[in-house]
Sequence to fold (234 residues):
Amino acid sequence: MTGTVLNVATVLLGALVGSLVGGRLPDRVHQRVLMGLGMVTLILGIDNGLAWREDESGRVLLSVMGGVLLGGVAGELLRIEDRLQGVGDRLQARYARGGSTVSEAFFTATLLFCVGPLAVLGSIEDGLRGDYDLLATKALLDGFASIALAAALGPGVALAAVSVLVFQGAITLGAGVFEDILVGEPLAALTSAGGVLIIGIALKLLDVKDVRVGNFLPALVFAPLIGAIAESFA
Fold:
């Protein structure tokens, strides 16, 4: 759990720094920070999303397409984003001051920090071999991202540290289960589907379109599952 604890610490520290600095900056600077983070997030999403290209058979691309479509349908039926938004809204109603965007900050930061190959692979490496190099790298990236997010959206970013602790901690503790599953095509499908969701986050940060990324979260289960099934028949 060393890597996850380090990751949680950098998110909290980054959120603190961003909140202290953000309150002293004019709105136009907040917007530039948010736009800059959005552009970097877009590149990160595209890089991860193209993981399917490593598979010459084309099965991973089909797994990602099927996973995203099925995940979107399942998420919409389960109203995942509405439920997550409700959690954020309750926190905002209880703790927010002066129109703070606690809900948006919590939701955006949670998706950004938890959706991606580093979160999954790093947690597995930490759990199986005690190697937290990947999570240390992720912790550094998340720390800087949390500064930018907190400066633009407020201290609600700090609440995402709980999401990081629960998500990565659970994978680390159950790493043995994933060792033989998330390899080959299933891992590529998970990485690529995660990239697609990160692109969705970028579109929201850039104020292009709110695609309700939360409702696509089941894609992170469907895509590697379809990839595993397709690989077994290859």
About this structure: The mean pLDDT is 82.
